[in-house]
Amino acid sequence: MVESSIKNFAESVSGQSMADELRELEITHVVTVPDTHQRTLLDLLYESRDIEVVTASTEDEAFAVHAGLYMGGARPMLIIQHVGVFAGLNSIRGISTDMKVPTFALVGLFARDATKELRDNRNSAVRQITPLLDAMNIPYFELNSANDLRVIREGYDLSLENLGPVFILVGERTN
Amino acid sequence: MKRVEVLEAVAQRKSTGISVATMRVVPGWANNGGAETQHFNVVGCMGVASSIGLGLALAQPEKKVIVLDGDGSLLMQLGSLATVAGTRARNFYHLVFVNRIYETSGHQSIPSSENIDFAGLAKAAGYNVAAYIDDVGVLHERLPDLLQEDGPVLLAFEVEPEFDREPFPRGIPPNQQVAHLREELVGDGRTD
What we know:
The complex is a heterodimer. Chain A is α/β, with parallel strands linked by helices. Chain A has helices spanning 15-24, 39-47, 59-71, 82-87, 89-97, 124-135, 150-162; strands at 29-32, 52-55, 76-81, 103-108, 140-143, 165-170. In chain B, strand 1, helix 2 and strand 2 form a beta-alpha-beta unit. Chain B has 8 helices and 8 strands, in the order H-E-H-E-H-E-H-H-E-E-E-H-E-H-E-H. The interface between A and B is large, with 37 and 36 residues.
């Protein structure tokens, strides 16, 4: 048997395992502009009774709704696509960062070629997301396999510690 | 109708509610006592007042949440009307001050300033109640009942453009507002 010489930098993680992590964190609300990449996770959350999903029209709104939830005493987080980070940048700057709101988001790297490093991807949003986050001093972790699930708690805790945004980059489409 | 006439009338009815104000509404709301407790000013990120208010309404369903918004601000996130309506938040009251200009940047007209109908947009998006008020007598007559309706409610107040710039009040620094309001509402000193 000839082994494939192609290395995958990311593998699919189950939406159920990610949902379990969110329940461990006692998340009460998920604010989303639905992400194709994390569709299976969203499907589970929309059906759940213990986590309320709020669908926003734009990511700018989503980060603001999230901030209101947090101030009101909820334990919210966001699920968006990488292009949503670009779209919601003004709210990330003006609300999450400037107003010191602990902001934890699962960010799907839609159209990511898992055989390539992020920086070598043809898709511009995949290629440019980490330079953007570096420029904004926003910490991020990569979730590239089931072995990385711990970064969900690590990222959430860091957002509380920093009183600011921390993003998890979901490397492959969830199953 | 003057903006201050509306603010006076609304401030009298805030009671134990939560308020969110943005842009040129901020000084007048503070001067009328509306910002003393359970209040948040959105400055430096135009357009998101109603979204922040929605989050507060969802987290605190037993409290009335009053958003004091500008027409130019709302236009920046017009989709938020659908977002709000989709949640059916019964405690959400969205007050839009319609002067049809960008007051801060030099009185330029907002897009479609002669035609835009915010009450009509809200109703079409699915708000439970939407009303347009351009007369102070009607304001005093209808406001008490409108603020008792199940939300989401949008009230569009036609107000005169203003040229005198009220100074923004000294208050809680912007980067401390979040922690302050959270402490008021949750009161446990925790950040999580």
